[in-house]
Specification:
Elements (H helix, E strand, L loop, with lengths): L1 E2 L3 H5 L1 H9 L5 H8 L7 H20 L11 H8 L8 H22 L6 H4 L10 H7 L14 H30 L9 E3 L2 E7 L8 E6 L5 E6 H32 L3 H26 L6 E2 L5 E6 L2 H10 L6 E5 L3 E7 L6 H16 L11 E2 L4 E5 L12 H15 L4 E5 L8 H17 L3 E5 L3 H9 L2 E10 L4 E8 L7 H8 L3 H10 L2 H83 L4 H20 L20 E3 L6 E8 L2 E6 L2 E6 L4 E3 L6 H5 L2 H10 L3 E3 L5 H17 L4 E5 L6 H10 L5 E6 L9 E6 L1
Helix pairs in contact: 2-3, 3-11, 4-11, 5-11, 6-8, 6-11, 9-10, 15-16, 19-20, 23-24
């Protein structure tokens, strides 16, 4: 229930309905928009909200609905219902086109079974009666005209007319040429007069041609004669045309009789198309105002996050101005919010935003606020906005306010949302303040909810001490003396009357005189509020600066962690390479010792030979002791300088790798689809010709092409759960292999089933660092960002 009813107009809801109507494609849809009303049944509100959200999802993320033609078939069905009447071929074609749209839309949803359950409910029990189309197709062509062969008689008449017209045209053409040869014809050609083909004859020659004179020119110099020989043929054509018309009426009457039993179904189809147009218009309007579906709760509370007044939003879009978002909450602990602050600071806009968005949600409309916002269901909404003085009712402005306060206190309850603008104004503040405080106390005792704007200090003090009430203020920049249009809960605000007067240019003498006339207590209260506002702004500015420093520190910390991980990886690689080199040195040394011993044995321990072999052994061992880690730069020729794309191998391994990057003394190489970091001095350059073709095909070219073609996002909308998880698993493996730090999964919103399944699956992977929603302007919780460790 809304009281008074003109509150809808004052809050701007009538303007919202007019904007929605502009998106309708039918008069029936516009009529349904006119019937939008404030509802209090949770299930009904939830159904309408979800229908609009699903249609919005279709427009933004799916193929467009096949809505091609939409006519008022209810009016045509009403006409066809009357015995003895018949529908024209144009009216029949309108029914045919509308039904084609109905069946195409139903097929669209059947192909997406379960994706849009609330929209599917619109045609849940709707019968599919395609016999109607077959009846119409038998007599009406694709352009909406009667088929020439709609009946055997019509085909015969059509043929006879064509034959007679051809004969008449041939006859009159002969007469016309003869008249031309005799110079009887005036300037011009054959022409139509009264539906008859006539020859223009000079007036002085009119008796030379036998026939019927149908007309003459304005000057009287030319007469238009239908030749006698053609007269009978034209009469025959005229008679055949009458017969054709009678046969068409008979066919249409018969067709209408065939359609008459389907009139109830046609009414159902009409209702379906009307609802479809209605929901479509609401969805298009939601997109225009960047609206979302909030969390609807079956309680009396609300929590608006980054909410915006839709009309103000549209107005600022045209002018390019930003809209300051509103953040406010009402719940059992904070039921009534008392908003104070300077004039033109945004108090009324904030209150009207809360009221309008609450009405929109309870009317089944999406709102321009974050999807995390929570909106409860109120049974009543009372509003006192603007001046309702009435000459007829002998009511002054204050009397009108008091009449509403009387109604509010008598009829409000714990399920009432109350909006009051400039509470207590219109009379002497000395008396208006206490009366307003008494009304506020009564509303609080009834556990009502509300948002009230005021300048009265006694109300601010009352709200500060009364449970269930809380002060709020509109932020004011008291340095630059301008409003910030931001609502802050928890403290009252000053009216900044003297500061604003100073900015406007009121003389200092007048301001000082005015200050001397207010009470000392009031002056202290106002000064305290100004000081609090200044301190609050300083704290707010400090918080912003601290957040920036923390963000910078976090960024540096992340960069440091990445560098640490990089150096640890290189350290492990160097240790592994050193171990391999040591093993190779030991292996070579052992082999040399074994060969020496073998040669000594073969020489039968000849002393001279033994000394020579021992000397050679010592020389080789000393070489290994002083030998740098193989291979070194000295062992590579200048002409063999390693570049990106070259093939290399380690001296103790036959595995070939291709160079991807060169970072100082390090090489980033690829062994097939595996990457590694190796010191440049630890590899030997290999000729490109000596690399087998199979190795090249399996090498980094395949990897590079695969990595280059790899998209950092995957679209799983419309897929079943098992298929979506299987495809995501393959995609995830490739993302990890290619070293991507993040990617996004597009799964759509819907009922959130696919989103929940995907997120639970990804949480099982240790490589996943965190999951986040996309920004609300680019898809919100319909897209998940995946960040990898």
């Amino acid at each position: 229930m809304i009281y008074p009813y003109n509150s809808l107009q004052k809050l701007g809801f009538d303007d919202i309905k007019n904007l929605i109507k502009s998106f309708c494609i039918s008069e029936m849809g516009r009529g349904m928009v006119d019937k939008i009303q404030f509802m209090s049944q949770y299930d009904q509100i939830n159904k309408f909200l979800r229908q609009t959200a699903e249609f919005k999802n279709i427009i933004e993320n799916d193929q467009p609905l096949p809505i091609q033609s939409f006519f008022d078939i209810k009016k045509l069905a009403e006409k066809a219902k009357i015995e003895g009447t018949f529908l024209s071929d144009e009216e029949v074609f309108q029914i045919y086109s509308s039904l084609q749209t109905v069946f195409a839309v139903i097929k669209y949803f059947e192909d997406r079974n379960g994706l849009y359950p609330n929209l599917e409910a619109l045609f849940e029990h709707l019968p599919i009666e395609k016999n109607i189309l077959r009846h119409i197709e038998a007599v009406i062509d694709v352009k909406g005209k009667m088929k020439p062969n709609a009946s055997r008689l019509l085909a015969e008449i059509t043929t006879a007319i064509a034959k007679a017209e051809q004969e008449a045209l041939k006859k009159i053409d002969q007469i016309y040429k003869n008249a031309q040869n005799n110079n009887w014809v005036a300037d011009g050609s054959l022409t139509m007069r009264d539906g008859r083909i006539c020859i223009p004859i000079l007036a002085e020659n009119k008796r030379k041609l036998k026939g019927f004179v149908h007309d003459e020119s304005a000057s009287g110099q030319t007469v238009y004669i239908e030749p006698e020989e053609v007269f009978a043929l034209n009469n025959k054509i005229r008679d055949l045309e009458f017969e054709k018309r009678r046969e068409i009426i008979r066919i249409l009457t018969e067709l209408t009789n065939q359609l008459r039993p389907y009139v109830p179904i046609l009414f159902s189809y009409h209702g379906f198309l009307t609802k479809l147009d209605f929901v479509r218009a609401k969805a298009l309007f939601a997109i225009k105002i960047d609206a979302n579906m909030p969390l609807l709760v079956n309680e009396t509370r609300l929590k608006l996050i980054n909410a915006k007044h839709p009309l103000l939003l549209l107005n600022h879009k045209e002018s390019g101005k930003p809209v300051v978002p509103l953040n406010v909450h009402l719940d059992p602990t904070v039921r009534i919010l008392l908003v104070s602050g300077p004039n033109a600071g945004g108090k009324s806009v904030a209150m009207k935003t809360v009221g309008l968005l609450q009405i929109m949600v309870q009317a089944g409309l999406l709102i321009p606020a974050d999807a995390e916002s929570e909106i409860g269901v109120f049974k009543q909404l009372f509003a006192d906005i603007g001046d309702d003085q009435s000459i007829e009712s002998d009511l002054s402005t204050y009397s009108a306010h008091l009449s509403k306060m009387k109604y509010f206190t008598e009829h409000s309850s714990a399920k009432t949302l109350i909006l009051i603008d400039e509470f207590g104004t219109g009379t002497d503040p000395l008396f208006g303040g206490p009366i307003a405080e008494a009304v506020l106390e009564q509303l609080n005792q009834k556990k009502s909810f509300g948002m009230i704007t005021t300048h009265y200090s006694n109300l601010k003090l009352f709200a500060n001490s009364a449970p269930g009430l809380e002060n709020a203020s509109m932020v004011f920049d008291n340095i630059n003396l301008q409003p910030m249009y931001m609502l802050e809960m928890g403290k009252p605000g000053s009216s900044y009357a003297f500061e604003i007067a100073q900015k406007i240019g009121l003389s200092k003498h007048l301001i000082d005189l005015a200050k001397s006339k207010i009470s000392v207590q009031q002056r202290k209260i106002d000064t305290l509020l100004v000081d609090l506002e200044r301190d609050k702004k300083e704290v707010f500015d400090s918080k912003i600066a601290l957040d920036k420093q923390q963000s910078k520190y976090k960024s540096l910390l992340e960069e440091n962690e990445k560098l640490k991980a990089y150096y640890e990886e290189n350290k492990r690689n160097l240790i592994r390479e050193a171990k391999l080199e040591a093993q190779q040195i030991i292996k070579n040394a052992n082999k040399l010792v074994e060969n020496t011993i073998s040669e000594i044995k073969e020489a039968n321990a000849d002393k001279a030979t033994t000394q020579t072999l021992r000397a050679n052994l010592n020389t080789e061992l000393k070489k290994n002791e002083t030998k740098p880690l193989p291979p070194t730069k000295q062992q590579q020729k200048e002409s063999e300088e390693i570049e990106v794309g070259d093939w290399v191998k380690m001296p103790d391994s036959e595995n070939l790798a291709q160079v991807l990057e060169i970072a100082k003394d390090n090489l980033i190489v690829a062994f097939g689809e595996l990457r590694s970091v190796i010191k440049k001095k630890r590899v030997i350059k290999v000729s490109n010709k000596s690399v087998p073709k199979a190795v090249k095909n399996f090498g980094t070219s395949t990897y590079s092409e695969s990595a280059m073609s790899f998209s950092p996002e995957i679209d799983l909308r419309g897929k079943r759960g098992e298929d979506a998880v299987a495809e995501l698993e393959r995609y995830f493996d490739r993302a990890v292999m290619f070293g991507f730090s993040s990617f996004k999964v597009i799964h759509g919103k819907g009922d959130g089933i696919l989103r929940k399944l995907i997120r639970n699956y990804l949480k099982n992977y240790p490589q996943v660092d965190k999951l986040e929603d996309e920004h609300v302007d680019r898809g919100g919780d319909g897209i998940t960002y995946v960040y990898l460790r």
